[in-house]
């Protein structure tokens, strides 16, 4: 899911007009990549939570030719939390890239196994935005926290009973 999140974020950023995209290495030591030109986007994988589910059958399909029922069950819910930092030189351009990025970010994507992954932007924080006459920091940043919610599924095949003959006993 990490690769899926990275490609989804990069695609949305490119469609929003942001040409400089970089992956951060560690959230504990956030080093700003000042060598990239503005506007730029940096993303950091914060956390990957896996929680067990008591959910039953998700999907079942029968193949009557082979007398088999294929069942899909969700075993775990997986939530990947990502921090995306949008940086620009002015407040208006940063806000514009932020809105366009959110518009281009899809609500759902399918992973390599065909499982639906939901994309949920949770919150945004701003840095460098001021209402003073003198602007002390020329760099404007908006951090967006996004959850990618998917699952771990198992597939099983169950043989169907082809034919039953009941013979009653008469006494």
Detailed description of the structure:
There is one protein chain. This protein is an alpha+beta fold and 171 residues long. 16% of the residues lie in helices and 47% in strands. It has 2 helices and 7 strands, in the order αββββαβββ. Strands 1, 2, 3, 4, 5, 6 and 7 form a 7-stranded mixed β-sheet that branches. Strand 5 (108-110) and strand 6 form a beta hairpin. Helix 1 crosses helix 2. It starts with a helix and ends in a 12-residue tail after the last strand.
List the helices and strands and how they pair.
Layout: H1 2-15, E1 20-23, E2 40-52, E3 57-63, E4 68-88, H2 91-104, E5 108-110, E6 116-127, E7 140-159
Parallel strand pairs: 1-2
Antiparallel strand pairs: 2-4, 3-4, 4-7, 5-6, 6-7
Helix pairs in contact: 1-2
Kindly list the characteristics that best describe this protein.
171 residues, alpha+beta, seven-stranded mixed β-sheet, 2 helices, 7 strands, 47% strand
Give the mean pLDDT.
85
Helix content: 10-25%
Q: What is the overall silhouette?
A: rod-shaped
Q: Low-confidence spans: pLDDT under 50, at least 5 residues?
A: 26-31
